[in-house]
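Session log. Operator J.P. requested a structure for one protein chain; no other inputs attached. Running the standard single-chain path with token output.
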Amino acid sequence: MAAVARLAAHLYGERMFHLIVVLAALALGGYVVVVLGVRNLFNPTVWWQSIAVWFAVAVIAHDLILFPLYALADRLLARPRHHHGGAPRHPSRRIPLTNYLRMPTLAAGLLLVMFLPGIIKQGAPTYHAATGLSQAPYLSRWLLLTATFYLTSAIWYAVKTLFAQRRSADGAATSAPATTPPAQQSADPHPGGPTPSPRITAAVVSHQEASAINTGQRPDRQAGAGLADTEQDEGIADQGGARK
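Structure written below.
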């Protein structure tokens, strides 16, 4: 059974649950058409007011026109912004703008779909006869609500951006490395490298002292030998003078 389900999913391109839901929706639509009848779905006298025409227009307008447009707009909003160097500018400080445009647009679109007959004043005589009111306020109120949605979203986006910039500035200030004073830098015998151990330092000092001692003894010995030769020459000269 699992192998059959995997084969069906491979052929269909989606899980079997998706196929079941689609078939159930088609069955429900067929049942509605059978119960209501074609005459109730299509009005030959005023055809553009028929349910079937509005349904077909809604499907075509949404799936073939509106959906590609707002999908493209959403993709453009979701793209990261780059400066001239090609890298994103301050990625930690930038608040994504996508959701702050999605929400007011979704709310305004839902209100437009719900109150579209009143906004376009469709059936104005029937509405006035039933309620005694006019449909004129629908458009102005929908525009006012839409402006309120976008203004609220813009204010909230500005507040979030301000707080994000402050947090990033505080984090950069606290994480900045402490600089070494010039005096300490000059006093450091091994700048930019590891400090040698005391054993290594003592060995180096001993070697330097031994070298200095060895190099210091050689001139002394040569000087001593020169003095001895001079003294011998002077002694020989004195002895020769005495004999004379």
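Operator note: Residues 1-36 form one domain.
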